[in-house]
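thought: fold this chain, then report.
action: predict
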Amino acid sequence: MTDSQDTNKQQQEPVAWYGVNIAGVKYLGWKDEELDDRGFDVFPLYTSPQLSKPWVGLTDKEKKEIYRLSVYVEGAISLTEAKLREKNNGTR
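observation:
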């Protein structure tokens, strides 16, 4: 098995199990056997790591430009937010 196949397998492992019995009782367990033994319909819960990209801040030149263009604090804040959104692909 290659490293990428092993990584994919690890990402596909359930992190917990969600169960519901005939009476509508809901239960969260760490192992599916805990719920199967109690007569629950069992559903695996998965997660995947969040994709992380490096934060891109403002350069000194950009900071000076915002300072130069801003008359009020509110304007500086708005310009700073807009520039950071632009540099970080619109994400907050």
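thought: worth noting. The two ends are 38 Å apart (CA to CA).
final: tokens above.
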